[in-house]
Amino acid sequence: MSPPERGSDVATPRLLYVRDRTSRQMDVRDAVEADAEALAELADAPSDVMRNLIHDRSVRVAVERSDAGPGPERREADEERREADDEGGADAPPDVEELAESVLGFVSFDARPDAVHVTQLDGTPGACTRLLEEPLGFARREGMAVELLVPADDDAVRTAVEDVGFDERGDGPRFEGRPTVRYRLEP
Questions:
Q1: What is the CATH number for 143?
Q2: 177: in domain
């Protein structure tokens, strides 16, 4: 069993089109190095830490879409980028302007022998709910549980986690003086 692909600055983002509870349309894609600044702002962390996270973990981002749907131009550009990547011709990273969408949230996770561990989750409630589908999908395919720790005072993330079906498993460790709550979801 190997963990899902990790992001990089030359990867072609995989896009999924969804709508969050606030009727915002969003894409969910693999994170790339160009996302580090936006993730750092969301997580209130240094951008170099987020850049390392993108390289060391599986990271997905939810970004707000500016159009009403995946129009023919976007689908055609995505297809051309995939074909170039398949042929080994994608030496340059995706255009930074293409990645400058409004980031709604992100999730990072990795697979360990006992469970898939969500290492960070942040964003709008709708984005968090949708982003949890990423580690959950991997865990279901592998027959594994999913675990995460959520800051006790982060009501938006706790609500998203509980809405998806995670069970509270008691107190977690303190991080930077903040209490956490341990959650787990069995396959």
A1: 3.40.630.30
A2: yes
